[in-house]
Amino acid sequence: MTDTNNDPKTYSADELLKENENLQQSNTGSLSAMAEAKTVAVLTSGGDAPGMNAAIRSIVRAGLNTGYRMLGVRRGFHGLWRGDIIELNSRSVSEKLQRGGTFLMTARSLTFNSPEGVKQAYDMCKVFNIDALVIIGGDGSYHGALDLSRLGMPVICLPGTIDNDIACTDYTIGYDTAMNTAMEAIDKLRDTASSHERCSVIEVMGRHAGYIALNVGISCGAEVILIPEVEHDFNRDVIKRLLECRNSGKHHYIVVIAEGVGSAVEYAKRIEKMTGIESRATVLGYVQRGGSPTLRDRQMASLMGVQAIDCVKNNRLNRVVSYRGGQIVDMDIEEAMKMTKTISLEEYGDAKFIAI
Questions:
Q1: Do the beta carbons of residue 168 and residue 146 sit within 8 Å?
Q2: Catalytic residue set
Q3: Bigger pLDDT: 6 vs 156
Q4: pTM for this entry
Q5: What is the pLDDT of residue 6?
Q6: Which residue among 32, 290, 304, 324 sits deepest, i.e. has the most Cβ atoms within 10 Å of its Cβ?
């Protein structure tokens, strides 16, 4: 079953089981070699984020360098319970570092959201003789990993989400690229707004978290920033503020709204109706998920991938890899899931007086 092709090849469960038997037979003269031989699988789950491919590449190459057999699970947890699993070699992850998205793909799975679905995924791990499962994703993916760990499947989690809303880490893979994408788009919209004396209302991603909106708003000099974590009064925090800006001599305005706050289209209509300022809405949407990852996302993803394999190598299982206090660390998944994270209200306050 030697794979002479550089591309990933899909094997049946029987073929993989047979190959595993052959590997064990070849090591019969060395009990230590048998003890060290491990099969590690990696999957991406939830929304895609720039840098996921860089993380997969790092995990696979670090694992191969350690002597592990590396598998890739396609289509996330949905593919796991269905057995959509391929073998990966060093060439399988070539030319992936600079690509956005995830070549292993991701998908939502209603089946996995049930106890029966989790058990089916666990059983499939046993079919493919998976010793550890590395999961790259956001908060929902972490909950899925926790469920698997409680059934006895060793897991390692990496934070991959553009929202930066995972409590146990200061930084998530994809966050920097998403912010830069949004910033570049808003800079272009500002050029148009200034030409037409217009208010641009821009909706960025962040259903439950305002990290993108806050940091992009500060970086683009937005007059108004609205995030889910802070309640606002429309007349006081939007209309009055825009009128103060106009009366101070400004001729164009930027309003940044996290999607969890409301619709940019509706806000633009209300602003124009109450102030007479021509207002236009732009929803950046999924463009924030795409594109080649920035240097920071490539670097963080690569180093976190190495840390994941280090956890497996040293038998630190059921862990989450995090970036805390300027260092890449790992912690117990049960402990990590109990942590909470809040946005900086001081930064939110600072954004108001430096923009007017």
A1: no
A2: 163
A3: 156
A4: 0.86
A5: 47
A6: 304
